[in-house]
Design a protein that fits this description.
The complex is a heterodimer of chains A (276) and B (417).
Chain A: H1 13-25, E1 29-33, E2 58-66, E3 69-78, E4 86-88, E5 113-120, H2 122-127, E6 132-133, H3 135-145, E7 153-157, H4 166-170, E8 172-173, E9 176-177, E10 181-182, H5 184-193, E11 198-201, H6 219-226, E12 230-233, E13 246-250, E14 260-262, E15 265-270
Helix pairs in contact in A: 5-6
Chain B: H1 32-38, E1 44-48, E2 70-74, E3 78-87, H2 93-96, E4 101-108, E5 113-118, E6 127-135, E7 141-147, E8 171-174, H3 180-191, E9 196-201, E10 220-224, H4 230-240, E11 246-249, H5 266-292, E12 303-307, H6 320-341, E13 346-350, H7 370-382, E14 387-388, H8 392-403, H9 405-413
Parallel strand pairs in B: 5-7, 8-9, 8-11, 9-10, 11-12, 12-13, 13-14
Antiparallel strand pairs in B: 1-2, 3-4, 3-6, 4-5, 6-7
Helix pairs in contact in B: 3-7, 4-5, 5-6, 8-9
Classes of the chains: A alpha/beta (276), B alpha/beta (417).
Chain lengths: 276, 417
C-alpha cells in the first residue's frame, strides 16, 4: 500500500487475502491454536481470600430464543483480565507501571505477531512440578537452536496444559502451588541479554508456583514487565510447535488502561518444521 | 409411643404424585401475633395491660374490660385438658386427607379455654397438659397439647410429624460442605438419620481441612456445586433436584470490611454473588422442583434452610458489606417463603451470631461453635419453627431489635471506627 504511487496499479486487498490463503491452505503452513477454552470450570489464579480476587469466567444468558429475546441467543460474560489463556501487559506489575505504552490500549500493534522460541521442559516438569528453567537450560537450548533473537516470545513448554483435571492443573497443597517456571537468573538473562518480547507458559502464571518465595518475588513478572515485556499464560498445544520458526499471533483486547486480557493465541508454523 | 417408620416405602412410579394441600391459612391481622411467636417456637397470647386478663382467641379489645391495650406476652401454656374428641369428618381437603384428628379443649391456668391438637402421647381427658405453639404446613400458628412435663416432640406423633421437617430418612442437599459450618451441618444431619446427603463442593482445587473425612459418612455424596456459576447450579438441579427433600444453603462469603476499609466494590460483589445471587440461583433451579414434590409420600420435599446472620437484621458496620448481603438474602428468603409456602414447603432462616471461625476471629466471645449452629438447624427441622436465632449474641440482638430497631442501629454504630 505504501509503495503505491499515483497512477500505478495498486494491489487490491482481495489479492492479499488470496496470497495468505494460498500460503495457509497449501502444505507450506499450518495454524496451531494455543488457546484454552474459556469456561466456568477453568481454574482461576488462587490468592489468599482476604486479598482482592480475580473473577473466574462466568456466563449468564441474556436470552435464548425465549421470552427474554425471542429470536436470538446471547450471554453476558464476566471474568478477571487474567483469566484463561491470557496476555499480561507491563502495567500489570508495579515494576512496569511507569513504562511507556504499558497498557492494552497503547501496546504497539507490531508486537502482536512475533517469532517464538519454544523450550521443551516437558520431561523435567513431569518429573518435578517445581522444576525451574535456568540459565543452563537456555544455554543448552541455544547450543542446539541458536541464539534467542531479540523481539521473540520465549515459550516454556511443560505439557502442563495436558493436566485437564483442575486439581492437578492447580496442584496446590498446604505450602501453596507447585508448578514449573523460570528462576530469577534465567529471567534476567532473557530480559537483559536477549531482549525478548515476552515469556509464555502453560501454567496459570508466567512465574513458578512457589515464586512468591523467590528473590525478588515473582521474578518473571517483576523483570519482564519492568522492562516493558509481556506475558502469556495458560497456553496449550506448545508440543505442536517447532523449537524455532513459529510466528505467534497474540492480540489482546484493546481495553483502556487494561493490564491484560483473555485472547485467542495461535501460531503460524511452517509445515516442514517439527513439533508434531 | 409410636416410632416413626424408619424405612419409608419406595414411591410407586405409575401412580400420580399427590398434590399438596394446605390447612386453612387465612388469619386476621391480630391473629398473626400468634404466628409471629410460633415462628420462633414461642407461645404468646395477648394480655390486657389494664386488667391483666389473658386473651384467647386473639382479639381487638379485652374480653373483660374492653381495653384496647392488648400486648403479646410469653405464656407457660400449662392447663387442663377438659375434653377431647376424634374428628372423623372434615370439609377442608388437608384435614380430610388425614382423618381422623385428635382435638381437645384445654383450660389454661391463665384463665382461657383454647382448642388444640392433642399429641398422641397425652392420656385421656381430663388430665394436666402443656400447650405449645407450632407452625402448620400453611405456616400459621396452631396449638398442640403435650403431656405436662413432656417436650414438644412432634416427630413422635405420626400425624403431627407432618408439621415438622424431620431429616430422618430424608435426602438432603447441603450446598457447601467445605466450611467448618457446612461440615458440622452435614455431620449433624447424618446423626439425625438423613438417608442421603449431597455435599456441594466449589473450587475443587482448594483443599479444606476436614472435608475429605466427610466421604467416610455412608450417606454422603460429594457433588460439584458453585453457586456463583448458574450453569453449575442448573446442572446439579437437573441431576438431583427431583430427589432433594431438604435443601440447606450453607454457602456463605464473609469478608470483614466496613465501607471505608475496602476500596471498590469487588469484594462486596463477591459477597453478594454468593450470599444473595447464589440463593437466587438455587431458588430458581431447585425451588420449582422442590415445590412440586411437597406431598410426595412420607419423605416428601419439606424444607429449605438458609444460613443467614444476625447481621441481616441490622447492619454491623465493621462487617458492613457482609451485613448488607445477608440482609439482601433475608429479603429474598421472604419471597422464597411466599412461593414455596404455597405448597407447604417451609423456609427456615437461621440467624446466628458470630461463629468461631476465621472471619469472626476478631469478634469477642461469646461465639457459636459450628456444631452449635448445626444442632440448631437439626432442631429447627425436627420442630416447627421458621426463624431461629441461635446463641446469646443473636438472642440479645433480636431482643434489642424487637424492642427498638433504631436503638440497636445506634448501639452497633458505636463499634464502627
Amino acid at each position: 500500500m505504501n509503495a503505491a504511487k499515483k497512477g500505478e496499479a495498486t494491489t487490491p486487498p482481495t489479492d492479499l487475502r488470496a496470497i495468505l490463503s494460498g500460503v495457509i491452505g497449501s502444505s507450506g503452513v499450518r495454524l496451531v491454536d494455543l488457546t484454552q477454552t474459556l469456561s466456568p470450570d477453568f481454574p482461576p489464579i488462587v490468592l489468599p481470600p482476604e486479598m482482592g480476587q480475580s473473577r473466574p469466567f462466568r456466563m449468564e444468558e441474556i436470552s435464548r430464543y425465549d421470552d427474554r429475546g425471542p429470536g436470538w441467543y446471547w450471554n453476558n460474560v464476566s471474568f478477571g483480565e487474567h483469566t484463561g489463556t491470557h496476555f499480561d501487559a507491563p502495567i500489570h506489575w508495579i515494576s512496569g507501571r511507569d513504562r511507556p505504552n504499558n497498557s492494552l490500549d497503547t501496546l504497539p500493534i507490531e508486537h502482536f505477531i512475533a517469532p517464538a522460541c519454544v523450550i521443551d521442559c516437558g520431561a523435567e516438569a513431569s518429573a518435578n512440578a517445581d522444576f525451574l528453567l535456568t540459565v543452563g537450560h537456555i544455554a543448552a537450548w541455544e547450543k542446539q537452536h541458536g541464539r534467542i533473537p531479540a523481539g521473540s516470545w520465549v515459550l516454556m513448554r511443560t505439557d502442563w496444559s495436558k493436566r485437564t483435571d483442575a486439581v492437578a492443573y492447580q496442584n496446590l497443597d498446604e505450602t501453596g502451588q507447585h508448578t514449573p517456571g523460570p528462576d530469577p537468573d534465567c529471567v534476567r538473562l532473557l530480559v537483559n541479554e536477549r531482549d525478548v518480547l515476552g515469556f509464555g507458559t502453560e501454567t496459570i502464571g508466567t512465574d513458578a508456583g512457589q515464586a512468591a518465595h523467590f528473590a525478588p518475588p515473582y521474578p518473571c513478572h517483576y523483570y519482564m514487565h519492568g522492562a516493558g515485556k509481556y506475558g502469556l499464560q495458560c497456553l496449550c498445544n506448545l508440543d505442536r510447535l517447532p523449537a524455532t520458526g513459529a510466528l505467534i499471533v497474540a492480540a489482546p483486547l484493546k481495553i483502556l488502561g487494561g493490564s491484560g486480557s483473555p485472547l485467542r493465541v495461535f501460531a503460524i508454523v511452517p509445515a516442514s518444521r517439527g513439533g508434531g | 409411643m409410636p416410632e416413626p417408620a424408619t424405612q419409608p416405602k419406595l414411591k410407586n412410579p405409575v401412580l400420580r404424585t399427590r398434590q399438596p394441600t394446605l390447612p386453612p391459612a387465612s388469619r386476621s391481622r391480630v391473629a398473626l401475633g400468634l404466628t409471629a411467636a410460633a415462628a420462633r417456637g414461642r407461645l404468646e397470647l395477648q394480655v390486657c395491660r389494664d386488667c391483666g386478663a389473658v386473651q384467647f382467641p386473639p382479639r381487638e379489645v379485652c374480653r373483660t374490660c374492653l381495653s384496647h391495650c392488648l400486648v403479646w406476652r410469653l405464656q407457660d401454656g400449662r392447663g387442663e385438658l377438659l375434653t377431647e374428641t376424634m374428628l372423623r369428618n372434615a370439609q377442608e381437603l388437608f384435614f380430610r386427607e388425614r382423618l381422623p384428628w385428635r382435638v381437645g379443649i384445654i383450660h389454661l391456668d391463665a384463665g382461657v379455654n383454647v382448642i388444640a391438637f392433642v399429641h398422641a402421647s397425652v392420656g385421656a381427658a381430663p388430665c394436666r397438659v402443656h400447650i405449645k405453639a407450632a407452625l402448620d404446613r400453611a405456616g400459621q400458628a396452631v396449638l398442640i397439647a403435650v403431656p405436662e412435663h413432656g417436650r414438644l416432640d412432634l416427630s413422635q406423633d405420626p400425624k403431627l410429624r407432618e408439621m415438622t421437617c424431620d431429616p430422618r430418612s430424608r435426602k438432603i442437599l447441603v450446598t457447601d460442605g467445605k466450611s467448618a459450618l457446612g461440615q458440622a451441618v452435614v455431620r449433624a444431619l447424618a446423626e439425625a438419620g438423613a438417608e442421603r446427603i449431597w455435599i456441594g463442593e466449589a473450587e475443587r482445587w482448594k483443599k479444606a481441612p476436614g472435608f475429605e473425612a466427610l466421604r467416610e459418612l455412608p450417606q454422603a455424596m460429594i457433588v460439584p456445586l458453585d453457586v456463583t456459576d448458574g450453569n453449575s447450579v442448573r446442572e446439579l438441579a437437573g441431576e438431583i433436584g427431583a430427589k432433594v427433600d431438604i435443601l440447606v444453603n450453607t454457602c456463605d462469603c464473609h469478608r470483614t470490611f466496613s465501607i471505608a476499609s475496602r476500596r471498590g466494590v469487588e469484594t462486596a460483589q463477591l459477597e453478594m454473588d454468593v450470599n444473595y445471587f447464589g440463593l437466587l440461583r438455587l431458588a430458581q433451579e431447585f425451588g420449582p422442583v422442590i415445590k412440586a414434590r411437597a406431598a410426595d409420600g412420607p419423605t416428601s420435599a419439606v424444607a429449605w434452610v438458609n444460613m443467614l446472620s444476625i447481621f441481616a437484621l441490622s447492619n454491623y458496620p465493621t462487617h458492613g458489606t457482609y451485613s448488607a448481603s445477608k440482609a439482601a438474602a433475608f429479603s429474598l428468603s421472604q419471597a422464597l417463603r411466599a412461593e414455596l409456602g404455597q405448597a407447604g414447603v417451609r423456609v427456615i432462616n437461621i440467624f446466628p451470631g458470630p461463629i468461631d471461625d476465621e472471619w469472626d476471629q476478631l469478634e469477642r466471645p461469646p461465639k457459636l461453635s459450628p456444631s452449635g449452629v448445626a444442632s440448631a438447624v437439626v432442631e429447627a427441622l425436627k420442630g416447627s419453627v421458621e426463624d431461629v436465632y441461635p446463641g446469646d449474641v443473636a438472642q440479645d440482638w433480636l431482643a434489642r431489635h424487637l424492642d427498638n430497631p433504631k436503638g440497636l442501629e445506634r448501639e452497633l454504630s458505636e463499634g464502627a471506627q
